[in-house]
Amino acid sequence: MAFILSIFDISGIQKYVFQSNRLQEIVGASMLVEKSLSQFLVDAIKEEIPKGQYVVDWKHATDFSFLNDYHIRSEIIYIGGGNAFVAFREEDDAKRVTRRLSIILLEKAPSLTFTAVHDVVKGENFHEDRKNLTVALLKKKSETIPLTRMGGISITQLDDLTFHPVTDYDDKYGFLSTENFRKREAFQEKKSILQKDKKFQIPLEFDDLGREEGESYIGVVHIDGNSFGKMLKALLCDESNYERAVWKIRNISKKIDEIYKNTFTEVVEELKNSFKNGKIGTIQLKKKGEQYCLPIRDIVLDGDDVTFVCDGRLALYASYVFLKKLSEKSLIDGESISACAGIAIVKSHFPFYRAYQIAEQCCQSAKKKAKEDGDLVESWMDFHVVSSGITNDLHETRKKHYQIPMEDSTDSSKGYHLIWRPWLVKDDNSTNSNYNFKHFINIHQSFKSGDKKWPRNKMKKLEEVLMLGKVETEIFLEEVKSKGLVLPTSPIREIFDSYSRTPYYDVLEMFDFFIDLEEENREDENQDAASF
To answer: What keywords sit in the KW lines (predicted)?
Structure first.
């Protein structure tokens, strides 16, 4: 039985979502991307295919009815990762739905584009049909000339972000283009997965995430699941039956989406449980009316693709908790699940799209490290702090600023001297790996508290001399040793390993951007017990 298998792929998602520096427009853009297939494609099918002759609720479909019920002219197989697979009985139906989707996006999500590919298949092997269609999609996208929208004319005012003609006015932000106006409309419809309660409200602006005196920092976190494509291939490659293959891909797509959303919710609940006297850790929350603004906000939660923004001082801890809780969960047949996280910590008015790119590059760095262990791919995270200016490519920046002078830095496979990251995140307390994040936490706690804690000025000085090299660092350590200060225990016995790399600089650089809520909660409990 031959039919049409179609793929609809949304293009330029990252730039569309993250080009603004206004949280409401970013979240609204994310909402429009989500709706582009989950709602707008569904609307196009409903408008072009007679009622009762389509199946669009793929998440609750028990089987692939399209194969056996010839009355059904179209059925969505699944939606995820910015694309949708749809079966059509006739090519004309597929083309009409494509045209209708184009019009809907033009009206409701200006500047958001998509690519569609239709192929005739026999319905004998879903894995092969899906692979061939994906290859055809990549070929078509590479051959497509990027579209440019018509700009303004000499008598029109242009939006300062998109440079499109302004069409609307906002009391707070002034004139807006149609694109940004639609994003703000979508923001009003956006329903966060975070539960509303009497104590907390979801932040509406970056300034609501939590501020301190002076310059504030936000954390942009991008998390991406490990080996999903490989796992999907293994799941489907031996499955020749079309109906069973569709059931499997639907099931795993729903399962992954559920796991990642639940994990993010658990992270937020942990932050809420640490709330005390208007603060989470040392972060004073912003209060509006009778509610406190949460210092975290989800932006993208699409399957194993997660992006959220938070107070810069919580970014590393929130990422660590997310990966740790994720590793506690399992997929089908108890198969473990892992992901990698990239964290960019930037000033609150830093260009958001650039911040996201840095977070994404950090995530790729973590994934590269994760793949070094072969088949055992675990959760890793990498981070970068931007204190001033526009950062170039992450690799070039680290090569320029994180190498010790006079040391051989030609072998990039050994990493950068001042960087120990990426760090490994596991759901247990073992420290078998030199890169286990538990080492980071232990070093941080030793610097911060206890009988041998370091004064802040000495930590800053150590951070400075590490950048100068081994000799200067050893001289400084001898000096502070005479005052009773010793280095915290680390995964290596010396300040530098055999490749002149050190784990201490990571901790010192992130000292103001890491709040260990688990440790602070234990200290509060001990103080309460002592006072009792």
So the answer is: Antiviral defense, Nucleotide-binding
